[in-house]
Design a protein that fits this description.
Number of strands of chain A: 2
Mean pLDDT of chain A: 81
Mean pLDDT of chain B: 85
Number of domains of chain A: 2
Distance between the termini of chain B: 44 Å
CATH class of chain B: Mainly Alpha
Strand content of chain A: under 5%
Structural class of chain A: mainly alpha
Low-confidence stretches of chain A: none
CATH topology of chain B: Arc Repressor Mutant, subunit A
Shape of chain A: elongated
Shape of chain B: globular
Helix content of chain B: 40-55%
Radius of gyration of chain A: 30 Å
Helix content of chain A: over 70%
Largest interface: A-B, 24 and 22 residues
Largest sheet of chain B: 2 strands, antiparallel
Radius of gyration of chain B: 13 Å
Order of helices and strands of chain B: HHHEEH
Oligomer: heterodimer
CATH superfamily of chain B: Winged helix-like DNA-binding domain superfamily/Winged helix DNA-binding domain
Strand content of chain B: 15-25%
Distance between the termini of chain A: 86 Å
Number of helices of chain B: 4
CATH architecture of chain B: Orthogonal Bundle
């Protein structure tokens, strides 16, 4: 079995091998970046258009920089260059690599204003993608809250929050302790209290807790439905047996 | 008769305690809907409206509209200036 170095050298011996390596490394670095930035919601963040845009953009930028350096300095060894661009693209760009800067003219200091700094462009690109991810995650949170409000009652939210507070799983950091928090919440108008409690549970305990509560509620209603069906069947059986006895 | 001005002590950055709390909540957990910000700062939703507006006027936060129906109509982001400001409190 070939060693990783042999494999990488073999890959980069092909004309497109360097590009492939840059692409793979850039995708890996971007994935790690997204996972660490959006840690509690990483999986959902990765499945947004913003994440896809960021992955594609970074991969494309990496291959462009790789191509640019290779065309300017053709004798640069492919493997180290691919690693440098693949892993350190963001660092490379932030070293104030400038795309275009006109020659300074005597007495015209404003010539600098024409330059296109890559780090600024890259920051804007990242900011744009990040906002798209944040917006998508917010919309998902709204959908989850909407479902929770439909399926759960105010008492369900309160009971779960009390359970988590009593167990020390959540700390509200209110000066008067958790009880002061519950007192404050009950002062809210009824129609907003439920929404506030749902958001509190989502923020303090996370999406899995809300989902688990909804699942439990669904199971309860299914059980109730089955029980009522069962009761109906039993009632029918009793009636039928009664009728038969009368016939006899 | 003069309008009653709430007693708001401002720090060296010209921010009130509520405003700093909001910036900190955004810095720690990322962009949020107003209701989430109220939850994160343990405030009631109406308590954060005014400080949030002031932060937007100062350019410390950016508010974008989202289609969340009755649950939320906006998403609040920390601006670069806002991030620099709140980071100065943590240094």
């Amino acid at each position: 079995m070939p060693s990783p170095t042999t494999f990488l050298l073999w890959i980069t011996s092909y004309p497109l091998g360097g590009y492939l390596l840059v692409l793979a490394l850039n995708v890996l670095v971007t994935l790690i970046e997204i996972i660490t930035v959006f840690e509690p919601e990483a999986w959902r963040a990765l499945r947004t258009w913003g994440a896809l845009l960021l992955l594609l953009g970074n991969a494309l930028a990496g291959m462009l920089v790789f191509d640019l350096i290779r065309s300017v300095v053709p004798e640069t060894p492919t493997l180290p260059l691919a690693f440098t661009v693949g892993v350190g693209l963001a660092a490379l760009i932030r070293t104030r690599l400038t795309l275009f800067r006109p020659l300074p003219q005597a007495g015209h200091s404003e010539a600098r204003s024409l330059e296109i700094p890559l780090d600024v462009l890259y920051d804007r690109w990242q900011g744009f993608c990040r906002r798209r991810i944040d917006r998508a995650l917010a919309v998902q949170r709204i959908q989850l809250i909407r479902q929770a409000l439909e399926q759960l009652s105010e008492e369900d939210f309160l009971a779960e929050l009390r359970l988590l507070a009593d167990g020390g799983f959540i700390v509200t950091q209110m000066p008067g302790g958790d009880e002061a928090f519950f007192e404050k919440v009950t002062a809210l108008p009824a129609e907003r209290r439920k929404t506030y409690l749902a958001f509190t549970l989502l923020d303090l305990a996370g999406a899995p807790t809300l989902k688990r509560l909804m699942q439990r509620q669904r199971l309860r209603s299914e059980k109730k439905e089955q029980e009522s069906k069962g009761a109906g069947v039993r009632e029918l059986e009793i009636r039928e047996s009664g009728n038969e006895e009368i016939r006899k | 008769m003069a309008e009653a001005v709430p007693n708001e002590t401002r720090d060296a950055n010209g921010l009130t305690e509520d405003q700093v709390k909001l910036l900190d909540a955004l810095w720690r957990k990322g962009p949020a809907m107003p209701m989430e910000l109220a939850v994160r700062t343990l405030s009631l939703p109406e308590e954060i409206n005014r400080p949030l507006e002031q932060l937007e006027q100062k350019g410390l936060v950016e508010v974008e509209s989202i289609d969340g129906g009755v649950i939320a109509q906006s998403l609040v982001f920390l601006s670069k200036k806002g991030a620099r400001t709140i980071e100065s409190y943590h240094e």
